[in-house]
Amino acid sequence: MKKFFSRLLRFFAGSAVCACCGADLYDHPHFCESCLRTLPFNNGPVCNKCGRATEQAYPACLECKADMPAFDAARSAFRYEGEIVRLIKQFKNGHKYLAEAFAHCMVPLLSEFETPDLIVSVPMTESAQKRRGYNQSELLAREVSARTGIVYEGKLLVKTRETDAQKTLTAKQRSENLRGSLRVHERVKCRGKRILIVDDVLTTGATTSAAAQALLRAGALRVYVLTAASVPDKRDRS
Fold first, then answer.
1. Domains of the chain (ranges plus CATH)?
2. Whole-number mean pLDDT of the chain?
């Protein structure tokens, strides 16, 4: 009973709960101590290009060597495995509040890049966004912008048509699937700028690479990618 009233008082005082397990929070603003010990943070060896978790640090992993991304570098807060898979799926299906928890863990990784001049998000077509109700990448980008003061340009990148899921396609098919699907709305805003692309998950990297190509063609100086999670590189693992 005493524990119940203690929890009730914290609730009315505005105390938060863990975004992962729902436990009361004391130190970290979004995750409890137990989850902080078990969540798959992407803090081990990574590919210096795409930021995927690898067996050892590489300038470019086998995935990048096979199909080098157009962006300068990418980093992610978590490995896309375990509880993070569940949280990402929830984030895409109505749990918009998770943008705050993810962005909190993403922002420190900006120290890996030159300071961006502006932020963009991976766009959805208007019909796709209406079906979901929101663009989860935009929510993340807005949260990163709010925490850093870097301007978010929500209309700069536009998706002109629907594309097939990239995961099961070959590198050549990915390129064909995305060809002409992304364009820059105001090219003048890109010229000479360092631009940060924000997305929820880096899977094959093809979408963010296509977005980077569009930005670079419009005159961007550097393009970086920051995601909540990335699929670890499996190709060099036994």
1. 42-230 (3.40.50.2020)
2. 88
